[in-house]
Structure formats: structure tokens, C-alpha cells
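Hi C.,

You asked whether I'd gotten around to modeling the 144-residue construct. I have! Everything is below, sequence then structure, no commentary in between.
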Amino acid sequence: MAEDTYYMKQALLEAGRAADKGEVPVGAVVVCRDRIIARAHNLTETLNDVTAHAEMQAITAAANALGGKYLNDCALYVTVEPCVMCAGAIAWSQLGRLVYGASDEKRGFMKYAPDALHPKTVVQSGVMTDECGNLMKEFFKKRR
């Protein structure tokens, strides 16, 4: 879908902002009724907080924007498959749709907790997989 590509490009911009700060380049945007209501990227190093993943930051910002904790009518676009912690937050927020780019075979929720999401959350994977995955590969190549 063209709109999925557009919103994933926005998440990639956020991932680039993370990389510029020396953070693992994961970016996320939350879309509600065809409008971006939250943008975020990893801040674990900046905040010295292991829970400051892009998805967690985006969910919090979206809930604040909407004035409520449930994101039933929203979609989260994230460049990399969420971890189990983020999948739990996605479930608790009752997110309507999750769209991610690159899979994470080492830490992704699909490996450890494929049923972690809310039963009504629709999942779409593989949107701009190469672009999302290459950003991660380049980041870690530079760090080694």
C-alpha cells in the first residue's frame, strides 16, 4: 500500500535521527485517522533508560495526544520488529494495527511471544524491509 510506504518513510526519518545521536536506529510513528499524531525514535542511551525504545516513546506520545491510553483506531509504523517488551505495551494500548519493516530474528516478539499482541491488532510485516534492515546493518558495522 502506498500509505504504508509513506508512513514507513516517516519512521525511517526518525530512525535516522536516532542514528545521528548514536542510538540504535529504530524509528516509529503513530497514525490515527490518516494523521501522524506521534513520532519517536530510540532514546535508551540519551535517557539512560533501557525501556526508552522507539515504540514505547511513540505509544506514550500518542496516548498523550489523544488524551487516553487506548490506541484502537491507530496504526504504529516501526522500522524494526518490536521486542517482547514493546509487544506487551502494544497489547496493553490495544493498538489497532502494527506495521513493521525489518524482522528481528534475535530479539523480535515473533520468536519469543508471537501471541503477545492484542487479539484484534492487525499485523503487517515486511514494509520497506531492505531499507529498514540496511540502516541497522550499517549502524552496527560502523560500531564494530
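If it helps when you're writing up: The two ends are 36 Å apart (CA to CA).

Thanks,
B.
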